[in-house]
Amino acid sequence: MNRFLVLVLGLLAVSAARKRYEPNWESLDKRPLPDWYDKQKIGIFIHWGVFSVPSFSSEWFWNCWNSGRKSCVDFIKNNYRPDWTYADFARDFTAEFYNATEWAKLFEDAGAHYIVFVSKHHEGFCNWPSKYSFNWNSMAVGPKRDLVGELADAVRKHTKMHFGVYHSMFEWYNPLYEQDKANGFRTRDFVTTKTLPELYELVNKYKPDVIWSDGEWQASSEYWKSPEFIAWLYNDSPVRDTVVVNDRWGNETRCKHGGFWDCSDAYDPGKLQGHKWENNFPLDKSAWGYRRTMNLDSIHSIESVLTLLARTISCGGNFLVNVGPTKSGKIIPIFEERLRQFGSWMKVNGEAVYETFPWKHQNDSLNKDAWYVARKMDQQTNVYVFILKWPANGKLILGSLSYTSRMSISMLGYKGSKTFSWTRNPTGGVAVNMPALSPTEIPCKWAWVLKLSNIEDDKFGGIKRISNE
Predict the structure, then answer these.
(1) Quick check: 34 and 244 in contact, CB under 8 A?
(2) Given Cys at both, which of 84, 85, 374, 450 links 80, Cβ 3.0 to 4.6 Å?
(3) What share of the chain is helix, strand, coil (3-state, %, to 5)?
(4) pLDDT at 141
(5) Which EC class is the enzyme in (predicted)?
(6) Domain 22-352 is in which class?
């Protein structure tokens, strides 16, 4: 038998053995979540588009203006000519300082293992030269560049991160969509000529490992033909083995169907979830896209970011941090500072983030500023506790720990000789005596992680990683 025939037979055998998913939620929801997503935990979200030109209010500026909201109407009235249209902003979406390699390296330095880039928001402007967007895309007007392609290439050439895309299912003022809506979504002209062709084009051209869908809420997944697209994605697409999707595929799907769930923006349930989920949140508390009107109080502090991280991964979630670049393609210094602060912290404490899974406790029973995760290393399960506030008297109370003399305690990043001791806490749990560390000895400025070993008992062998199987 020649080599070619052997290869063909082998491929046929693999194809035959591969599980096929039917275009319905019962079948699609049985697909296991690819391991990489749960293990790698940290992502960067990037909201960039024509909305970055007015950079006023939020990425919803067009809707704000068109719906007659006074702040947005006055902004246009006071700064632009009377016949100004939203489309006029596109020519000023210049991206002259956009350097995809610099972005990719910054995001990796921040500790991210995947990115999600907005390929198209609700305004309908495509950040790639889509065949289905006519002149409303980044090659036809504005940058005159393939913004998605440049970042996909940079991520793959210069980092080890996974590349992903956000895509809005609907467009605010597309006439085809408005007609389908007027027809009670009994017609699908917009879906068959715009939404689905764009999704297939994105996957075939850029091979993203994340498809982050949005803009689905006015119609059902049946209208959007979401199950048919996802079945193709899982069965026959070029990323069928690695791709993950979220839960925004129809007005009945959030927190019910899809790969990982985000349920709502900045989703933070505060307790363990039975399904893999993600906390996506913007560094700017009031917008995802860049706003020229934001001030320092609008930006999450690094302490706030690390608190959200601890809450999220303790409860089984991934952490997707959003930045909004300027129209010129710059990530402003305050966003860069937060990302680099986060990255410096991750270099010390990444062991307690990547490849971890929920422990039997999440938030400590007595200490609201302590959160737990677990990780199996060297044939044993270690538990990590995030300490968000250093105890004022040097005594850390952990009510969810059972006292054992076999336990060992260390602090990630601390290289000195001072030791941690512990005693039974009179009201339950353990009292940890934190050593007095000088500013030069303490391993990081915010949020410290204790590593606990030899604490298992017969009742605990670790909670399995969430796989959605």
Answers:
(1) yes
(2) 84
(3) 30, 20, 50
(4) 98
(5) hydrolase
(6) alpha beta
CA distances from 446 to 37, 58, 179, 346 (A): 26, 30, 53, 11
Query: From CA 329, how far away is CA 466, in angstroms rounded?
Result: 37
Q: Where in the chain is the domain with CATH 2.60.40.1180?
A: 370-453
b or e along 120-136 (b: 16 or more beta carbons within 10 Å of the residue's beta carbon)?
bbbbbbbbbbbeebeeb
pLDDT digits (tens, 9 = 90+) for 377-418: 888 999 999 999 999 899 999 999 999 989 999 999 999 999
C-alpha dihedral, 263 to 370 to 313 to 457, nearest 10°:
-120
pTM over 0.85: yes
CATH superfamily of 370-453: Golgi alpha-mannosidase II (2.60.40.1180)
Q: How large is the C-alpha radius of gyration of the chain?
A: 24
- The string of pLDDT tens digits covering residues 5-55 is 545 445 444 444 579 999 999 999 999 999 999 999 999 999 999 999 999
